[in-house]
Protein backbone atom coordinates (compact mmCIF):
# COMPACT_ATOMS: atom_id res chain seq x y z
CA UNK A 1 0.00 0.00 0.00
CA UNK A 2 1.47 3.37 -0.95
CA UNK A 3 1.99 6.22 1.47
CA UNK A 4 -0.63 8.19 -0.41
CA UNK A 5 -3.22 5.48 0.09
CA UNK A 6 -2.36 5.13 3.79
CA UNK A 7 -2.93 8.82 4.43
CA UNK A 8 -5.86 9.30 2.08
CA UNK A 9 -8.52 10.86 4.27
CA UNK A 10 -11.49 13.04 3.56
CA UNK A 11 -10.88 16.73 4.20
CA UNK A 12 -13.17 16.99 7.26
CA UNK A 13 -11.45 14.01 8.88
CA UNK A 14 -7.96 15.41 8.18
CA UNK A 15 -8.92 18.67 9.85
CA UNK A 16 -10.37 16.85 12.85
CA UNK A 17 -7.34 14.62 13.40
CA UNK A 18 -4.85 17.44 12.96
CA UNK A 19 -6.74 19.73 15.28
CA UNK A 20 -6.96 17.23 18.12
CA UNK A 21 -3.61 15.47 18.11
CA UNK A 22 -1.37 16.83 15.37
CA UNK A 23 -0.28 13.33 14.41
CA UNK A 24 -2.09 12.70 11.13
CA UNK A 25 -0.03 10.92 8.44
CA UNK A 26 3.05 10.48 10.64
CA UNK A 27 3.41 14.08 11.87
CA UNK A 28 5.11 13.81 15.29
CA UNK A 29 5.13 17.39 16.52
CA UNK A 30 3.07 20.57 16.56
CA UNK A 31 5.81 23.20 16.64
CA UNK A 32 9.38 23.13 15.30
CA UNK A 33 12.21 25.35 16.47
CA UNK A 34 13.10 25.85 12.82
CA UNK A 35 10.17 28.28 12.58
CA UNK A 36 11.57 30.38 15.45
CA UNK A 37 14.89 31.90 14.31
CA UNK A 38 17.01 34.32 16.27
CA UNK A 39 15.71 37.87 16.11
CA UNK A 40 17.80 40.95 15.50
CA UNK A 41 20.19 41.54 18.38
CA UNK A 42 19.91 38.02 19.83
CA UNK A 43 23.35 36.49 20.26
CA UNK A 44 22.30 33.02 21.43
CA UNK A 45 19.34 30.68 21.21
CA UNK A 46 17.75 31.26 24.62
CA UNK A 47 14.94 33.56 23.52
CA UNK A 48 14.00 31.55 20.42
CA UNK A 49 13.83 28.34 22.42
CA UNK A 50 11.61 30.02 25.01
CA UNK A 51 9.34 31.43 22.30
CA UNK A 52 8.97 27.99 20.75
CA UNK A 53 8.19 26.37 24.11
CA UNK A 54 5.62 29.05 24.91
CA UNK A 55 3.95 28.53 21.54
CA UNK A 56 3.60 24.78 22.07
CA UNK A 57 1.37 24.61 25.13
CA UNK A 58 -0.90 21.93 26.58
CA UNK A 59 -0.70 18.53 24.85
CA UNK A 60 1.69 19.98 22.26
CA UNK A 61 5.06 18.66 21.10
CA UNK A 62 8.03 20.88 20.24
CA UNK A 63 10.65 19.43 17.87
CA UNK A 64 14.26 20.64 18.10
CA UNK A 65 16.16 19.74 14.90
CA UNK A 66 19.78 18.66 14.54
CA UNK A 67 22.21 21.43 15.47
CA UNK A 68 23.97 23.17 18.35
CA UNK A 69 22.06 25.65 20.48
CA UNK A 70 23.69 28.05 22.95
CA UNK A 71 21.72 28.99 26.07
CA UNK A 72 22.54 31.78 28.53
CA UNK A 73 19.58 31.40 30.94
CA UNK A 74 17.17 28.66 31.96
CA UNK A 75 14.45 27.57 29.53
CA UNK A 76 11.23 27.42 31.56
CA UNK A 77 8.68 24.77 30.60
CA UNK A 78 5.59 25.46 32.69
CA UNK A 79 2.79 25.10 30.13
CA UNK A 80 2.58 21.34 29.61
CA UNK A 81 4.69 21.18 26.45
CA UNK A 82 6.60 18.00 25.58
CA UNK A 83 10.01 18.19 23.88
CA UNK A 84 11.33 15.93 21.15
CA UNK A 85 15.00 16.48 20.23
CA UNK A 86 16.81 15.10 17.20
CA UNK A 87 19.60 12.76 18.32
CA UNK A 88 22.03 15.27 16.79
CA UNK A 89 20.62 18.27 18.72
CA UNK A 90 22.86 19.70 21.46
CA UNK A 91 21.70 22.38 23.90
CA UNK A 92 24.71 23.85 25.71
CA UNK A 93 25.04 26.31 28.59
CA UNK A 94 27.26 29.30 27.86
CA UNK A 95 26.67 31.16 31.15
CA UNK A 96 26.07 30.22 34.77
CA UNK A 97 22.49 29.23 35.57
CA UNK A 98 20.63 26.75 37.74
CA UNK A 99 19.39 24.49 34.91
CA UNK A 100 19.33 24.36 31.12
CA UNK A 101 15.68 23.24 31.24
CA UNK A 102 13.29 23.59 34.17
CA UNK A 103 10.06 21.60 33.90
CA UNK A 104 7.71 22.81 36.66
CA UNK A 105 4.22 21.65 35.91
CA UNK A 106 2.28 23.00 38.89
CA UNK A 107 0.35 25.41 36.64
CA UNK A 108 -0.90 22.74 34.25
CA UNK A 109 -3.61 20.13 34.43
CA UNK A 110 -1.05 17.32 34.48
CA UNK A 111 -0.38 18.13 38.14
CA UNK A 112 -3.41 16.55 39.80
CA UNK A 113 -1.74 14.55 42.56
CA UNK A 114 -2.15 16.69 45.67
CA UNK A 115 -3.71 19.49 43.63
CA UNK A 116 -6.78 20.40 41.65
CA UNK A 117 -7.29 20.31 37.91
CA UNK A 118 -7.61 23.81 36.53
CA UNK A 119 -10.45 24.70 34.21
CA UNK A 120 -9.37 24.63 30.59
CA UNK A 121 -6.29 22.46 31.21
CA UNK A 122 -6.38 18.81 30.13
CA UNK A 123 -5.06 16.16 32.50
CA UNK A 124 -2.03 15.12 30.43
CA UNK A 125 -0.42 11.91 31.68
CA UNK A 126 1.64 11.45 28.52
CA UNK A 127 4.14 14.30 28.70
CA UNK A 128 7.75 13.58 27.73
CA UNK A 129 11.30 14.77 27.07
CA UNK A 130 13.05 12.59 24.48
CA UNK A 131 16.36 12.64 22.63
CA UNK A 132 19.26 15.03 22.25
CA UNK A 133 22.34 16.11 24.19
CA UNK A 134 22.11 18.46 27.18
CA UNK A 135 25.53 19.95 27.95
CA UNK A 136 25.75 21.80 31.26
CA UNK A 137 29.32 22.75 30.28
CA UNK A 138 30.24 22.89 33.98
CA UNK A 139 28.01 25.97 34.28
CA UNK A 140 24.60 24.43 34.95
CA UNK A 141 22.67 21.35 35.88
CA UNK A 142 21.12 19.97 32.73
CA UNK A 143 17.46 19.45 33.60
CA UNK A 144 15.06 19.71 36.53
CA UNK A 145 11.69 17.97 36.56
CA UNK A 146 9.21 18.90 39.28
CA UNK A 147 5.48 18.60 39.96
CA UNK A 148 4.88 15.94 37.36
CA UNK A 149 2.45 13.06 37.13
CA UNK A 150 3.40 10.19 34.82
CA UNK A 151 6.18 11.67 32.68
CA UNK A 152 8.45 9.84 30.21
CA UNK A 153 12.14 10.65 29.70
CA UNK A 154 14.05 8.60 27.14
CA UNK A 155 17.20 8.54 24.98
CA UNK A 156 18.80 11.66 26.50
CA UNK A 157 22.54 12.32 26.99
CA UNK A 158 23.56 14.53 29.94
CA UNK A 159 27.07 15.97 29.63
CA UNK A 160 29.12 18.02 32.13
CA UNK A 161 26.19 18.73 34.44
CA UNK A 162 27.18 20.68 37.55
CA UNK A 163 26.25 20.25 40.28
CA UNK A 164 23.78 17.73 38.78
CA UNK A 165 22.94 16.13 35.47
CA UNK A 166 19.25 15.39 36.08
CA UNK A 167 17.32 16.56 39.16
CA UNK A 168 13.94 14.92 39.76
CA UNK A 169 12.06 16.94 42.38
CA UNK A 170 10.08 15.52 45.26
CA UNK A 171 6.75 16.94 44.12
CA UNK A 172 6.10 14.32 41.49
CA UNK A 173 5.58 10.65 40.83
CA UNK A 174 5.53 8.03 38.08
CA UNK A 175 8.52 9.05 36.02
CA UNK A 176 9.43 6.44 33.43
CA UNK A 177 13.12 7.04 32.57
CA UNK A 178 14.93 4.80 30.09
CA UNK A 179 18.23 4.85 28.16
CA UNK A 180 19.77 7.88 29.85
CA UNK A 181 23.53 8.44 29.53
CA UNK A 182 25.53 10.71 31.85
CA UNK A 183 29.14 11.70 31.14
CA UNK A 184 31.64 14.17 32.56
CA UNK A 185 34.26 15.17 30.02
CA UNK A 186 35.82 18.20 31.75
CA UNK A 187 38.12 18.53 34.73
CA UNK A 188 37.16 20.72 37.68
CA UNK A 189 33.65 19.30 38.22
CA UNK A 190 34.38 16.97 41.14
CA UNK A 191 31.49 16.60 43.56
CA UNK A 192 28.82 16.47 40.86
CA UNK A 193 25.86 14.07 40.87
CA UNK A 194 24.59 12.45 37.69
CA UNK A 195 21.03 11.63 38.73
CA UNK A 196 19.52 13.09 41.90
CA UNK A 197 15.94 12.03 42.53
CA UNK A 198 13.56 13.04 45.30
CA UNK A 199 10.57 11.69 43.36
CA UNK A 200 8.57 8.56 44.11
CA UNK A 201 6.86 5.61 42.44
CA UNK A 202 9.14 5.87 39.41
CA UNK A 203 11.04 3.49 37.13
CA UNK A 204 14.63 3.99 35.96
CA UNK A 205 16.12 1.51 33.50
CA UNK A 206 19.22 1.20 31.31
CA UNK A 207 21.02 4.13 32.94
CA UNK A 208 24.77 4.53 32.31
CA UNK A 209 26.89 6.99 34.30
CA UNK A 210 30.54 7.73 33.48
CA UNK A 211 32.63 9.96 35.74
CA UNK A 212 30.25 11.74 38.03
CA UNK A 213 31.45 11.74 41.67
CA UNK A 214 28.06 10.35 42.70
CA UNK A 215 26.23 8.26 40.15
CA UNK A 216 22.68 7.92 41.49
CA UNK A 217 21.56 9.77 44.63
CA UNK A 218 18.10 8.68 45.74
CA UNK A 219 16.05 10.51 48.37
CA UNK A 220 12.54 9.54 47.28
CA UNK A 221 10.68 6.31 47.91
CA UNK A 222 9.16 3.32 46.15
CA UNK A 223 11.38 3.64 43.08
CA UNK A 224 12.82 0.83 40.95
CA UNK A 225 16.30 1.00 39.35
CA UNK A 226 17.03 -1.73 36.80
CA UNK A 227 20.17 -2.24 34.68
CA UNK A 228 21.98 0.86 35.97
CA UNK A 229 25.79 0.95 35.53
CA UNK A 230 27.99 3.55 37.26
CA UNK A 231 31.72 3.73 36.64
CA UNK A 232 34.52 6.29 36.72
CA UNK A 233 38.18 6.94 36.05
CA UNK A 234 38.29 8.57 32.62
CA UNK A 235 38.82 12.17 33.83
CA UNK A 236 42.53 12.37 34.79
CA UNK A 237 43.88 13.12 38.28
CA UNK A 238 44.20 16.72 39.42
CA UNK A 239 47.86 16.01 40.25
CA UNK A 240 50.23 13.51 38.66
CA UNK A 241 50.21 10.21 40.50
CA UNK A 242 46.81 10.80 42.13
CA UNK A 243 43.59 8.95 41.56
CA UNK A 244 41.25 10.15 38.78
CA UNK A 245 39.45 13.32 39.82
CA UNK A 246 35.88 11.99 39.84
CA UNK A 247 36.85 8.95 41.92
CA UNK A 248 37.80 11.00 44.99
CA UNK A 249 35.03 10.55 47.58
CA UNK A 250 33.04 8.71 44.94
CA UNK A 251 29.79 6.84 45.58
CA UNK A 252 28.25 4.80 42.80
CA UNK A 253 24.78 4.39 44.34
CA UNK A 254 23.70 6.64 47.25
CA UNK A 255 20.43 5.02 48.28
CA UNK A 256 18.28 7.04 50.68
CA UNK A 257 14.54 7.40 51.03
CA UNK A 258 12.70 4.14 51.59
CA UNK A 259 11.39 1.04 49.85
CA UNK A 260 13.61 1.47 46.79
CA UNK A 261 14.79 -1.49 44.72
CA UNK A 262 18.07 -1.87 42.79
CA UNK A 263 18.03 -4.90 40.53
CA UNK A 264 20.77 -6.04 38.14
CA UNK A 265 22.82 -2.89 38.75
CA UNK A 266 26.59 -2.50 38.50
CA UNK A 267 28.80 -0.39 40.77
CA UNK A 268 32.03 -0.33 38.84
CA UNK A 269 34.90 1.29 40.76
CA UNK A 270 34.13 3.79 43.51
CA UNK A 271 35.18 4.47 47.08
CA UNK A 272 31.71 3.25 48.10
CA UNK A 273 29.73 1.02 45.79
CA UNK A 274 26.33 1.11 47.55
CA UNK A 275 25.74 3.60 50.38
CA UNK A 276 22.42 2.89 52.08
CA UNK A 277 20.21 5.13 54.21
CA UNK A 278 16.54 4.82 55.01
CA UNK A 279 14.40 1.74 55.52
CA UNK A 280 13.34 -1.32 53.55
CA UNK A 281 15.86 -0.94 50.74
CA UNK A 282 16.69 -3.82 48.39
CA UNK A 283 19.84 -4.53 46.35
CA UNK A 284 19.25 -7.66 44.31
CA UNK A 285 21.31 -9.43 41.64
CA UNK A 286 23.85 -6.60 41.51
CA UNK A 287 27.62 -6.30 41.23
CA UNK A 288 30.50 -4.35 42.68
CA UNK A 289 33.91 -4.33 41.00
CA UNK A 290 37.03 -2.34 41.80
CA UNK A 291 39.40 -1.62 38.91
CA UNK A 292 42.81 -1.76 40.61
CA UNK A 293 44.42 0.28 37.83
CA UNK A 294 42.88 3.46 39.27
CA UNK A 295 44.53 3.08 42.70
CA UNK A 296 41.53 3.17 45.05
CA UNK A 297 42.10 1.70 48.52
CA UNK A 298 40.02 1.11 51.66
CA UNK A 299 36.91 0.48 49.58
CA UNK A 300 33.43 -0.27 50.85
CA UNK A 301 31.30 -2.41 48.57
CA UNK A 302 28.18 -1.79 50.71
CA UNK A 303 27.91 0.74 53.55
CA UNK A 304 24.77 0.76 55.67
CA UNK A 305 24.54 3.97 57.69
CA UNK A 306 23.04 4.33 61.16
CA UNK A 307 19.28 4.62 61.09
CA UNK A 308 18.89 2.35 58.09
CA UNK A 309 16.89 -0.81 58.73
CA UNK A 310 15.44 -3.78 56.89
CA UNK A 311 18.13 -3.81 54.20
CA UNK A 312 18.02 -6.76 51.82
CA UNK A 313 21.16 -7.64 49.83
CA UNK A 314 20.65 -10.81 47.82
CA UNK A 315 22.20 -12.68 44.90
CA UNK A 316 25.04 -10.13 44.55
CA UNK A 317 28.74 -10.42 43.68
CA UNK A 318 31.44 -8.15 45.15
CA UNK A 319 34.98 -8.17 43.77
CA UNK A 320 37.59 -6.05 45.53
CA UNK A 321 40.45 -7.28 43.37
CA UNK A 322 42.79 -7.66 46.31
CA UNK A 323 42.80 -4.01 47.41
CA UNK A 324 41.33 -4.42 50.89
CA UNK A 325 37.67 -3.92 50.04
CA UNK A 326 35.11 -4.26 52.84
CA UNK A 327 31.38 -4.80 53.09
Structural write-up:
The chain is mostly beta strands. Helices cover 8% and strands 40% of the residues. The chain contains 3 helices and 26 strands. The protein has helices at residues 3-6, 11-20, 46-56, and strands at 31-32, 61-64, 67-71, 75-77, 82-85, 89-93, 99-104, 127-130, 133-135, 141-146, 148-159, 164-168, 172-183, 193-197, 203-210, 214-218, 224-231, 251-255, 261-263, 266-268, 272-276, 282-284, 287-289, 300-304, 312-314, 317-319. The strands form 2 sheets. The protein has a 17-stranded parallel beta sheet that branches. Helix 3 links the parallel strand 1 and strand 2.
Features:
327 residues; 9-stranded parallel β-sheet; 17-stranded parallel β-sheet; mainly beta; 26 strands
Amino acid sequence: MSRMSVCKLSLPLVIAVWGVAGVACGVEHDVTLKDYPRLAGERDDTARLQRAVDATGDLGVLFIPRGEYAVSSTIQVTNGASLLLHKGATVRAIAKMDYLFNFDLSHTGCWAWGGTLKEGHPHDQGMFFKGGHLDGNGLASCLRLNRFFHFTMRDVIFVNGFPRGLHVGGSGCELVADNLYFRTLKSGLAGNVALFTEGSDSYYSNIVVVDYTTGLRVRGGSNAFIHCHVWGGAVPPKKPGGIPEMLENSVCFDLGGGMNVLRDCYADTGVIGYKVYGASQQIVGSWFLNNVNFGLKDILAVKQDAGSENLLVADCSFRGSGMGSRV
